[in-house]
Amino acid sequence: MLPERQTAADISYRESGRKDLPALVLLHGIGSTSAGWRLQYGPLGEHFHVIGWDAPGYASSKPLPAEAPTAEAYAHALARLLESLGIQKAFIGTNSWGTPTGVVFARLFPERVRALILGGPAAGWGSLLKDERDKRLHERAERIRTLGVRKMREDDAATLVPPGTRAEVIEWIKGAEGVNAEGYVQALRMMAAVDVPSEAALVHCPIKVVVGEKDTRTPPATNAERIAAAAPQATLTRLPDCGHLPHLEYPEIWNAAVLELLKEASTPA
After folding, report:
1. What is the domain count for the chain?
2. What is the pLDDT of residue 266?
3. Is 81 part of a structural domain of the chain?
4. 181 belongs to a structural domain
5. Which domain holds residue 65?
6. What 8-state DSSP symbol labels residue 59?
7. How many CA atoms lie within 13 A of 145 on its CB side?
């Protein structure tokens, strides 16, 4: 069962676990919300104070004021949420589009991040030529505005995960509650401007990158591998039969990787 949404600092979020446990902050992908972490709240709530945010412009979260907000703007919004919740330091887990916010947050506030775990990470389009960035942005913005959120998510369900994925995962992907078209377009503009490997090169906390070898949305060679190669303390784990959503497709592996980070952080050097 999903925890109920709450709101603080103009951001809606879900939480589980005792507040005296280490904090784990979860940042969803561009077509998802805090509901996308449904398989993490229960199991990881036994070990962490889990916070799954709805990014600005999603669900009940107030949109950012700029038409084209930067990854830094999302990171500062996350900082405001954590400050309002009294969370000084956290582990951060991401999927896909959530990765730029998590990595930039760690670059801006290194003292507030214990470690990062990046699932199916998106590298951003910032290293591409402007014409290619503009083309991708236009095509994806037009797609959601033409199809609408629900039809877009239904069409995406078959492309985000490989054949044979559990039917319940497909149904969760189709769920469009809380995904708002204009918030999605703002998120696209952030993606078009950021280059995550360049950001990751400046982050010195431990980073675990978990990627499905069948991820066609953010192919490992141009996304996860570049990020892992750039980050000073990164490890890369490949899941052979997994697509873009390792936290939903293989939650036992994803959750175990998070617990491993906790164990490593708790072990004296």
Report:
1. 1
2. 79
3. yes
4. yes
5. 6-266
6. T
7. 11
